[in-house]
Amino acid sequence: MAHQHSQSAGATATTLIDETIKAFDPGANAATPQEGLSLINDWFSSLKTHPLAEDMVDIMRKLREELQGNMPNNQRLRSLLEALADHTDRIAPQAGGDYPSRLTSLSTALRNFAGQLSTTV
């Protein structure tokens, strides 16, 4: 698979955002559940001490549980991805530098992928 998500301990938030956007790129191969789990673990490491991330970590925990199941439910995945996109939109204006635009792109990628899930069987 084209996506390799395991980040080194020194990986930047920018790299993690870019890798996540790439994982949800409709023009590329879709990320596998295992790759999604790897991304979630990378996000946990990155966000574990961030004060604005508590709700986001909770959503990702639920997303991880769904992906670890034998038959992930597309409706549940869609709902969790949309919730993650909503939260990303809420925190984007509070980020500094070029993070607001990157987070907006991430939110869009999450919403687009969630929309694709609603059309799959």
UniProtKB/TrEMBL annotation:
This is Uncharacterized protein.
